[in-house]
């Protein structure tokens, strides 16, 4: 992990000719150059900050093309931004240059329920896609907790997911095609409007998760799914984390895939209960929150199958919600977790590592050993059905010795994850935070191929420099 938050350093103004061309393309009112106004676009949820030299607001694909052309002509770094909710510094303009905000490209262009698709501009909020789809009994699968204020472009840029990814997949699995602008200023159209299609290379999947380093997505054709008619929620409490981790494997090794399978270790449960008691039995070592969804006629069969898999050694209590109020009560512990962690450790290090589901027991045992070895409290929770664990290292940022121990511990956490055939990020992405570790996971030859792809799509290296790939 690189250094913590930086202080914004003014870089001086852009060349006046570049500003004039941006203003000619967008209108003067949609180009900010005053550092005081630009500062708001230098942050994201990583708590880092760097000052852009200009902020541009595009309202159409053609305007995005124009901005890319200006940045190319003057070799200006260009960072595309949705709503800046990412946690990795991915939208912090560390090299200065222009931040291109797509927040005004927020039109839903077309919805075709019969084709189960929606076409929209990249700045549309995920929540607005959900509302438009819900009017036709449909939904878009990616459900990050930030859906009310994160954009489709950002969701695709980071390949966002959420609890229901275990059954329905992440952003990458739920996009049919894209309209985008490469770093060279070329307009491209990827994919198609059907769920089958094998003509040409799959540039859609290449762009998704590329964190604005290969192209700027301007429009997306998203795959919609029928909204399940009914949902049932279960809470299973276990004596220890290993029992819960083994239950995850059992649940995933039977035919009824849950629509959510969330894990909280004992520390996470206790923190959440201290923040807001929700009736979890005292002293439980771990908890699973599970949901099954489907048709009313078949939901009880699915529920029984998941209950049978959740039962086993170490189970302390298993509760099923009978109505909406009880469902909310069962989820309350999970929802209390983030605010409770923020209260005790506002500057915690929050990782989102992933291991194959069958290796979760080894992961939790290994993390406990690393916590003891380095004297660092580690709280784990996450989307266990995908093997995606939010591993939180709690430390006092004012204590240099503790922060050093955190860094040493983190390196061993990453080694452990890779030894278990896992990956360093499931949904938050790389940004700046994990860039130094990408070479641990991806072999040098493969990284060279990725750099060659970047060079093809972004020959002058203007798109989001310093992110996603190590130099
Ligand atoms: C409270 C909270 C809860 C969260 N919960 C989750 C969660 O459950 N799951 C999850 O996956 N994430 C979660 N996140 C992280 C974040 O919300 C997601 O990564 C989200 O997808 C970012 O969307 P955004 O519009 O804010 O994108 P930004 O942060 O603005 O951008 C993210 C990345 O995408 C790139 N990008 C943005 N727009 C485009 C575009 N049009 N074309 C190409 N690249 C683009 C940017 O350059 C950047 O690299 C959470 C964040 C917060 C603050």
Percent in helix: 25-40%
CATH class category label of the largest domain: Alpha Beta
CATH architecture type of the largest domain: 2-Layer Sandwich
Low-confidence stretches: 1-5
Bound molecules: flavin-adenine dinucleotide
Helix segment tally: 15
Gyration radius (Cα, Å) is: 23 Å
CATH fold title of the largest domain: Uridine Diphospho-n-acetylenolpyruvylglucosamine Reductase, domain 3
Strand order in space, largest sheet: 15-12-14-13-17-18-16
Quickly count the domains. 4
Q: What composes the largest sheet?
A: 7 strands, antiparallel
**Record field, number of beta strands:** 18
Terminal Cα separation, in Å?
15 Å
The overall pLDDT, averaged over residues, is 95
Strand content: 15-25%
Morphology call: globular
Structural class label: alpha+beta
Give an overview in words.
The chain is built from 15 helices and 18 strands. It is an alpha+beta fold. It folds into 4 domains: 16-101, Uridine Diphospho-n-acetylenolpyruvylglucosamine Reductase, domain 2 (2-Layer Sandwich); 108-226, Uridine Diphospho-n-acetylenolpyruvylglucosamine Reductase, domain 3; 230-337, Alpha-Beta Plaits; 345-428, Alpha-Beta Plaits. The protein has a 7-stranded antiparallel beta sheet, sandwiched between helices. The protein has a 5-stranded antiparallel beta sheet with strand order 5-6-10-8-9. The chain has a 4-stranded mixed beta sheet with strand order 1-2-4-3. Helix 8 packs antiparallel against helix 12. The longest helix has 21 residues, at 324-344. The structure holds flavin-adenine dinucleotide (FAD). Flavin-adenine dinucleotide binds at residues 44-45, 79-87, 90-91, 102, 122, 144-146, 150-151, 153-155, 157-158, 160-162, 211-212, 216-217, 427, 464.
């Amino acid at each position: 992990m690189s250094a913590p938050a930086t202080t914004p350093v003014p870089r001086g103004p852009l060349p006046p000719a570049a500003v004039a061309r941006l203003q000619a393309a967008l209108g003067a009112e949609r180009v900010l150059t005053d550092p005081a106004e630009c500062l708001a676009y230098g942050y994201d949820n990583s708590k880092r900050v760097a000052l852009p030299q200009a902020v541009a607001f595009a309202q159409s694909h053609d305007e995005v093309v124009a901005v890319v052309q200006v940045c190319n002509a003057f070799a200006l770094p260009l960072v595309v931004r949705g709503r800046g909710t990412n946690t990795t510094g991915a939208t912090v303009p560390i090299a200065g240059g222009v931040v291109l905000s797509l927040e005004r490209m927020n039109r839903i262009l077309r919805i075709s329920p019969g084709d189960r698709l929606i076409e929209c501009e990249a700045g549309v909020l995920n929540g607005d896609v959900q509302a438009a789809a819900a009017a036709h009994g449909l939904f878009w699968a990616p459900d990050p907790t930030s859906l009310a204020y994160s954009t489709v472009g950002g969701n695709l840029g980071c390949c966002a997911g959420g609890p229901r990814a275990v059954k329905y997949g992440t952003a990458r699995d739920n996009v049919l095609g894209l309209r985008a602008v490469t770093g060279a200023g070329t307009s491209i159209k990827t994919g198609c409007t059907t769920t089958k299609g094998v003509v040409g290379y799959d540039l859609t999947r290449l762009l998704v998760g590329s964190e604005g380093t290969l192209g700027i997505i301007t429009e997306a054709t998203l795959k919609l799914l029928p909204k399940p008619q009914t949902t049932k929620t279960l809470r299973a409490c276990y004596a220890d984390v290993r029992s819960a981790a083994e239950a995850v494997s059992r649940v995933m090794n039977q035919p009824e895939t849950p629509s959510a399978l969330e894990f909280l270790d004992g520390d996470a449960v206790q923190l959440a209960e201290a923040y807001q008691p929700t009736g979890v039995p005292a002293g439980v070592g771990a908890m699973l929150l599970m949901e099954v969804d489907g048709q009313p006629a078949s939901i009880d069969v699915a529920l029984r199958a998941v209950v049978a898999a959740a039962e086993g050694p170490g189970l302390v209590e298993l509760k099923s919600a009978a109505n909406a109020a009880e469902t909310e009560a069962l989820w309350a512990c999970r929802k209390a977790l983030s605010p409770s962690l923020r209260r005790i450790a506002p500057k915690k290090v929050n990782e989102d590592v992933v291991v194959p589901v069958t290796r979760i027991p080894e992961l939790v045992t290994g993390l406990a050993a690393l916590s003891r070895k380095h004297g660092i409290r580690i709280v784990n929770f996450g989307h266990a059905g995908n093997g995606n664990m939010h591993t939180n290292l709690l430390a006092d940022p004012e204590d240099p010795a503790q922060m050093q121990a955190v860094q040493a511990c983190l390196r061993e956490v990453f080694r452990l994850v890779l030894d278990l055939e896992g990956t360093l990020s499931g949904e938050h992405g790389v940004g700046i935070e994990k860039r130094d570790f990408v070479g641990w996971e991806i072999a040098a030859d493969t990284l060279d191929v990725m750099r060659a792809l970047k060079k093809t799509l972004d020959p002058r290296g203007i798109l989001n420099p310093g992110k996603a790939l190590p130099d």
